[in-house]
């Protein structure tokens, strides 16, 4: 997903769920910041780089194929963008290496998603935003895994877009190119994807890179053969999936506003969204690469308040100007605490499933985690334990 859904649509969902204009902005800000909080940004302001929730293209290109680099990639992308659906899934007649990667495939309505939403309960608005980003991405990124893997994430040549035609659809082959400077052209069916690399662990095989940005476009409908699917076809209907994502966000945001109402999977707030369904569906179906202006107009019509454009500048400036003892109380500081908690939970779950794809992490929730300074002490403790072991 992109800024149109993570920022503007999240604002709309939060406001419909009963949060105030200011609260909805804070939640939406944090949801979008997940796609911006790179190691480079954190290093620039002197923040703990372990809290990175994304990687820049340059960071990925400079990343090696050694186990530590691959573990770092997996910790970020599996935790925040491709939440694993079933870490104990079984497959017959396959290697343990393949099974571990297969278990990282993202899908909706998992136990780990419920835990992700509940992890934000009673915490900051920034923590709520982080959870909403992850929830939304389970719908857009389902069937791909947040670890480099050709045998899981490759899509093959049998790739077709389903284009509206009258009351039905017509199939059109998708033509991919590998030039990142070439803009996608939905009218001609021309899209950019990652360069095919036979190396199983190439970053070109991370997530939905082989499918380009099609999973991120709300209008897209397409069918393809996933590398893991044993020649069984996948049909993705983004307008439908994105509507489910929006309804589920409204439900989740209502749960987090009230005590005693816990998030359950496969529940959607259809009733609260129903008055706006036609307008939302119109936005989702519109064949455009970015729908920010349409979502912004909808959000402003809901609240009667202006929605400012998203920017990271206020986040980094506030953090840089704060004293070290007060940095946890800034927006970036609260985001960092939420990101570290989420990453710790997911990587520990992966490790407990018997996989080292995300390495071994400090379970900060079990060790009384209260802030960044405590995190640094726990990290040092873990490093010392590793040395003694």
Concise account of the structure shown:
Helices cover 47% and strands 7% of the residues. The protein is α+β, with helices and mostly antiparallel strands and 389 residues long. It folds into 2 domains: 3-145 and 240-359, no CATH class; 152-237, no CATH class.
Feature tags:
389 residues; alpha+beta; 2 domains; 16 helices; two-stranded parallel ribbon; 6 strands; 47% helix; disordered C terminus
* General shape: globular
Q: What is the helix content?
A: 40-55%
Backbone structural class? alpha+beta
The number of helical segments is 16
Q: Classify the beta-strand content into a percent band.
A: 5-15%
The counted number of beta strands is 6
The gyration radius over C-alpha positions equals 20 Å
Number of separate structural domains: 2
Spatial gap, N to C terminus: 42 Å
| SSE run | HHHHHHHHHEEEEEEHHHHHHH
Strand order of the largest sheet: 2-1-5-6
Spans where pLDDT lies below 50 across 5 or more residues: 381-389
């Amino acid at each position: 997903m992109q800024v149109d859904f993570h920022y503007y649509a999240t604002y709309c969902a939060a406001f419909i769920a009963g949060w105030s204009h200011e609260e909805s902005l804070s939640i939406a800000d944090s949801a979008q910041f997940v796609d911006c909080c790179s190691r480079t940004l954190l290093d620039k302001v002197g923040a703990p780089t372990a809290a990175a929730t994304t990687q820049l293209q340059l960071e990925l290109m400079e990343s090696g194929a050694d186990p530590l680099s691959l573990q770092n990639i997996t910790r970020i992308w599996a935790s925040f963008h491709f939440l694993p659906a079933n870490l104990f899934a079984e497959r017959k007649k396959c290697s343990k290496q393949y099974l571990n990667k297969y278990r990282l495939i993202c899908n909706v309505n998992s136990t780990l998603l419920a835990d992700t939403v509940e992890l934000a309960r009673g915490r900051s608005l920034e923590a709520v935003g982080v959870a909403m980003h992850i929830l939304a991405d389970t719908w857009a990124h389902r069937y791909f895994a947040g670890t480099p893997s050709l045998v899981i994430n490759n899509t093959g040549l049998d790739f077709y877009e389903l284009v509206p035609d009258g009351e039905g659809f017509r199939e059109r082959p998708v033509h991919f190119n590998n030039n990142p400077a070439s803009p996608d052209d939905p009218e001609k069916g021309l899209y950019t994807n990652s360069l095919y690399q036979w190396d199983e662990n190439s970053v070109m095989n991370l997530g939905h890179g082989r499918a380009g940005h099609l999973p991120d476009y709300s209008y897209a409908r397409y069918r393809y053969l996933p590398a893991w699917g044993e020649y069984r076809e996948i049909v993705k209907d983004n307008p439908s999936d994105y509507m489910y994502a929006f309804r589920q966000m409204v439900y989740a945001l209502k749960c987090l506003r009230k005590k005693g109402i816990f998030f359950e999977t496969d529940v959607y707030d259809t009733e609260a969204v129903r008055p706006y369904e036609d307008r939302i569906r119109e936005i989702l179906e519109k064949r455009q690469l970015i729908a920010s202006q349409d979502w912004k107009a909808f959000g402003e019509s809901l609240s009667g308040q202006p929605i400012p454009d998203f920017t990271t500048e206020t986040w980094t400036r506030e953090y840089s100007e704060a004293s070290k003892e007060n940095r946890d109380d800034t927006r970036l500081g609260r985001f960092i605490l939420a990101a570290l908690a989420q990453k710790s939970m997911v990587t520990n779950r992966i490790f407990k499933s018997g996989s080292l794809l995300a390495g071994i992490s400090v379970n900060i929730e079990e060790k009384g985690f209260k802030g960044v300074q405590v995190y640094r002490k726990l990290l040092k403790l873990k490093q010392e334990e590793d040395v003694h072991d």
